[in-house]
Amino acid sequence: MGRREDICDCRIIHEERIKAARQGALANGEIERMAELFKACADANRLRILWALRQGEMCVCDLAALLEVSESAVSHQLRLLRTLRLVRNRREGVVLYYRLDDEHIEHLIQVALTHSREERP
Amino acid sequence: MGRREDICDCRIIHEERIKAARQGALANGEIERMAELFKACADANRLRILWALRQGEMCVCDLAALLEVSESAVSHQLRLLRTLRLVRNRREGVVLYYRLDDEHIEHLIQVALTHSREERP
DNA sequence: ATATTTTATGAAAAGTTGCTCATATAATCA
DNA sequence: TGATTATATGAGCAACTTTTCATAAAATAT
User: Fold this and answer.
1) Which of A100, B31, B69, B113 has the most CB atoms less than 10 A away?
2) For residues A41 and B37, is the Cβ–Cβ distance under 8 A?
3) Any bridge partners for residue A96, and if so which?
4) Residue A41 Cα, gap to closest chain B Cα (Å)
5) pTM (2 decimals)?
6) B contacts of A39 (beta carbons < 8 Å)
7) Nearest by Cα to B110 from A21, A112, A41, A62
């Protein structure tokens, strides 16, 4: 008892499958980065922001008005999205205009939307 | 002061854009469902499970061994994935075999992977 | 310079998630 | 029947997120 492997306390039923899964597995860093990307999209307010920015750039104040939340809250969410490179901004005087960082995000959201719409009754 | 609209305490700078965004906006329920789908994928262990199941079905014990976490933890995660219809199971005696519920999930993950790989330096 | 405006940020409160541990259930076996 | 095996589930806790509140910073105007 206490060997490194047996986190699973019942006999391993399909060693072959586990071996295969281990070989097909992604590197740890890759899984983490994917999870981060999904996390960025895993919040209704952030999704609303990303969805709105498809149509063109908007400033913090616009987004706050659209989502009906405080500017501070939007700003925090934008920081997260900026850090993860989903959005990018451009300053014009006092105003910061945010836009999507690239088209991939739009694609990802479209796929998710299609999937969630096709969900069973 | 106190009108319904001014959650945003600075003047609304681009009413046109807000109006446009409101028209293009998704229904609330739709945003929530999309967020749920993203949430389901927004965890490294759940992603590992989904990624592994691409190759074929596995039982709880297999997955626990693969991820090196407790069976209880895997079972909780599987329940979440089941509830959100990302996985489905089949009983054979005492053993429950889990598999992806449909091919959309695989597609979604592939898009995310591609995107996260193409991220800038 | 000072005041004003828009946005950013840090800290703490409020809310959510993911794990563990103990217990329950469902199928099988003796 | 009772015992065993594989999995499910509920409660509780630790870790993390999201919002709020107060304050700071950057650009502009006076």
Assistant:
1) A100
2) no
3) A91
4) 6
5) 0.90
6) 38, 42
7) A112
